Hints:
Blueprint: H1 2-16, H2 25-35, H3 42-48, H4 54-66, H5 73-85
Helix pairs in contact: 2-5, 4-5
Amino acid sequence: MKLALSLIVAALFTISGLGLSTSGAADGSSLVLTKCTSCHSLKRVCRGLGKKDLAAWEKTNQRMADMGMTITADELDAISNYLANAKPGESPVCK
């Protein structure tokens, strides 16, 4: 009975779009790999890890958007949050 109830609840969350998301660092890193590397090398991005806080990354990334990077506000936030929390030398950005 508990299993059936759990499956029903999980199905309802999935159908309604309220399921838990696996966004965050994984999405941020994949966005860095696709968006940032369209103009910059990973080496350049990697050099900035651990040197800028969230506000500095937001300013930098907004400047990139203003220069023509095609990106949504949510993607911009995900990239800034990822880069602000990534450690120097961290994979996959710093291979």
